[in-house]
Amino acid sequence: MEPHSGKEVNQRITEAAAAFEVVSAVSFEQRALWMNAAAALLEAEAESLGQLITVEMGKPISQSIAEVRKCATVMRFYAEKAEKFLASESLSDPTTVGASHARSQYQPLGVVLAVMPWNYPFWQVIRFAAPALMAGNTALLKHASNVPQAAMFLDTLFERGGFPSGSLRTLLIGSNEVEAVISDRRVKAVTLTGSEPAGRSVGALAGKHIKKVVLELGGSDPFIVLPRANLGAAVETALRARVSNNGQSCIAAKRFIIHEEVYEQFVGEFSRAMASLTVGDPLDSETQVGPLATESGRRELCELVDDARAKGATILTGGTALDRPGWFFAPAVIADLPDSARLVQEEAFGPVASVYRVKSNEEALRVANQTSFGLSSSVWTNDDAEQEWFTSHLDAGAVFINGMTVSYPELPFGGIKDSGIGRELAAVGIREFCNLKTVWKA
Ligand code: NAP
After folding, report:
1. Closest ligand 1 atom, CA of 413?
2. Distance (Å) from CA 213 to ligand 1 centroid
3. Fewest CB atoms within 10 Å of the CB: 134, 153, 185, 262?
4. Model confidence pLDDT, tens digit, residues 292-307
5. CATH homologous superfamily for the domain 221-401
């Protein structure tokens, strides 16, 4: 697919700005009608769109179809809830501020640029676009360069549902052209979901041009298993949490921190389960792990594992590129990591699990909090006091107790530390790209 020229980019920004005049002026009810119609299109086309995703980035077909359906769910969620989430709030006693009436009200900002990754090529975009459009904004999408077909499908999805033409416009541009778009006066805000370096760059540009920014970045989430856990459920969930989406998920559990009392049993069962995964053609419904999305992604994963091996870590299973066409990689479990290993600090964006043996809850917490990331976390114990203690002390945007981290439309999603700024989903997500206007009347 040909990249857009400077002239085409300018035209597309003009279209998004013109669409804003219409989208922001109509009622929530009208936007909800359009949003639900677009959701119905996704539901009707889920199978073929699932194929598009799998062919373009390699995730197992059932997961691609599920991704499309989940997008429809979040669209319907915001169609129903947007008006309530953005309702004005009046001060109950305005005389305290010397007014006869005082309130705060949410208004859309305008055109918002979304820079998005390839790993959930539909979900990441819709998770931003559904609330943004329901709030009355319009969107520009700079999608990852390796998913242009998804990008161009999304370019027309909302107008097919009835939104004005230009409500979401894809820009087929390279990352070096993002600054020109952020600096454009018609663009009011920017969000990026992607890696930490990309987030730093876009965050700096947003600061330079004083534009609102939301960043959803990488993670190296801890998965802590304590003696009073249901071990069978923990192993089964650990497997899914590490390898779903071929291991390329920001909220995947990546570091498994296991109390010494259950370490041998957990690691034995988990390693056997990782070794017996079916790796293969992602269009085959039997496949559990497909190829990685890019050659460079596989190379980076191999480098992380090679670094650990060279520094004395124990490779319990997998950990090498598979010798067949495609960017296949054998799911790995790696133990005995020295502090100097890159895997201790860096994100493994593929099916590589690091396991850590700890003697106490305090040590588990120290290991969990020792990276610069803070996206989500998972704690396995049936002890109420332990659950509360870890919930209070984990440096993360979320804690899932006896379960796997999942993004739900109803729950805020986002990280702290180098995992990002701001939140998506729930009420807080739709408010991120609004002007919270204070109204005071004498
Ligand atoms: P990436 O390389 O950062 O790319 C993400 C997007 O940013 C792409 O559209 C990319 O464009 C663009 N980009 C890259 N460098 C840029 C720069 N300097 N300036 C402006 N735009 C830039 O990330 P990825 O490899 O696609 O995705 C994997 C990363 O995303 C992982 O770290 C993962 O944890 C994170 N992620 C986070 C979340 C979350 O919600 N927190 C969700 C999913 C993924 P090009 O493709 O043209 O380079």
Report:
1. 40
2. 15
3. 185
4. 999 999 999 999 999 9
5. Aldehyde Dehydrogenase; Chain A, domain 2 (3.40.309.10)
